[in-house]
Design goal:
Layout lengths: L8 H8 L1 H14 L1 H4 L5 E2 H8 L3 H13 L3 E4 L2 E4 L1 H6 L11 H11 L2 H7 L14 H25 L6 E6 L5 H9 L3 E7 L4 H11 L5 E5 L11 E7 L7 H13 L1 E10 L2 E2 L7 H13 L6 E2 H10 L3 E7 L5 E6 L2
Parallel strand pairs: 4-5, 4-7, 5-6, 7-8, 9-10
Antiparallel strand pairs: 1-3, 2-3, 8-12, 11-12
Length: about 325
């Protein structure tokens, strides 16, 4: 597929400079600028006193937020815009929960040059189960926020079982289980995840009122049994964390967890043979480079081969209207 050419030096410079606005937004989030304006306008000096930050530097930061449309300023008083009050104030129903996770991604992406030289992450990040609680909480919140509408669309295109139990491997908050059960009320779900993730999962289950429909199972999907007897085994955003041998093992275990006629469904980026399309997947491969030991994005043919080796039949790709891509196979 032909590459997308840059049309002008100005376009290239705009792309290269985009980090400035990104860092501005993330710093404002980390400092909780928008939260401190929740109750009304304040001067930058008042905000600096509340934050314990430098008055002039705080003023310049807030001026820049006005310049990009996230704050408004009248004389010397700053206040939230309608947009920032809705999406950037903690506790708002529409609050963008993924912002904290983006601050973590900033730190790993800043090492990209070194990672390309080394061929793997250089940040010495711990395994997800062993990372700090605030990291785990923000990660699960980001995944829950990102997948909310996506899960609804996926439920519409899948041929979900009318009853029985589904296994949600690495299911995090359980957001896909919730959406599938909303679509098929007689379906039950088990969310399988790491021991230090499941306390967050259980909170989301309670908040969703799903205690009678969704349970949890503790384990590591590469080393522990996934169980058996499931009508559907679902794997969202998992295979890009692993190397090819791990994915072959994971998909075989997923197939073994199914009843006869059950479905294995994998949601991820599925690359074309050039590994340049879709563009989001090409960028996400770098996200895995900077953040994991050996994660990657994989081609449709690679995933199809793993599913065939696991004994699955009728392997097909499905897409939702919003561009989410699924690979589906059935156990004979």
């Amino acid at each position: 597929m032909a590459s997308k050419e840059i049309s002008s030096p100005a376009q290239l410079m705009e792309m290269a400079n985009a980090f400035r606005v990104s860092r501005l937004i993330l710093t404002a989030h980390e400092l909780r600028i928008f939260d401190f304006l929740r109750e009304g306008g304040r001067t930058s000096s008042e905000i600096a006193r509340l934050l314990g930050t430098h008055p002039r530097a705080t003023d310049r930061l807030m001026n820049a937020l006005v310049a990009i449309g996230l704050l408004q300023k009248s004389e010397q008083v700053f206040s939230n815009t309608g947009f920032s009050a809705r999406y950037l104030v903690t506790g708002s129903p529409a609050y963008l929960m993924g912002m904290s996770h983006l601050t973590h991604l900033w730190r790993t992406w800043n090492t990209l040059t070194h990672c390309v030289a080394a061929g793997t992450t250089v940040t010495m990040e711990k395994e997800i189960n062993d990372r700090p609680e605030d990291w785990r909480e923000s990660f699960i919140a980001a995944m829950h926020s990102r997948a909310g509408q996506q899960a609804i669309e996926v439920a519409k295109v899948l041929d979900l079982p009318d009853h029985g139990t589904m296994l949600d491997v690495g299911g995090g908050s359980g957001v896909f289980s919730f959406a599938f059960i909303a679509h098929k009320p007689d379906l039950k779900a088990v969310v399988f995840d790491l021991p230090n993730i499941l306390p967050f999962t259980k909170k989301y289950i309670l908040n969703a009122g799903m205690e009678t429909s969704v349970t949890t199972m503790e384990g590591n999907y590469l080393t522990d049994s996934l169980g058996e007897g499931f009508a559907l085994t679902f794997m969202s955003a998992i295979i890009h964390i692993n190397d090819p041998a791990e994915n072959e093992l994971l998909i075989r275990n997923g197939a073994d967890s199914l009843v006869s006629g059950g479905q294995l469904v994998i949601l991820d980026h599925f690359m074309d043979e050039s590994r340049t399309e879709p563009a989001a997947g090409a960028l996400f491969a770098l996200n895995m480079l900077v953040g994991t030991d050996h994660g990657d994005t994989y081609t449709e043919e690679e995933v199809r081969l793993w599913m065939e080796k696991a004994g699955l039949e009728g392997i097909r790709k499905r897409e939702t209207p919003d561009g989410t891509t699924l690979m589906i196979g059935n156990k004979p």
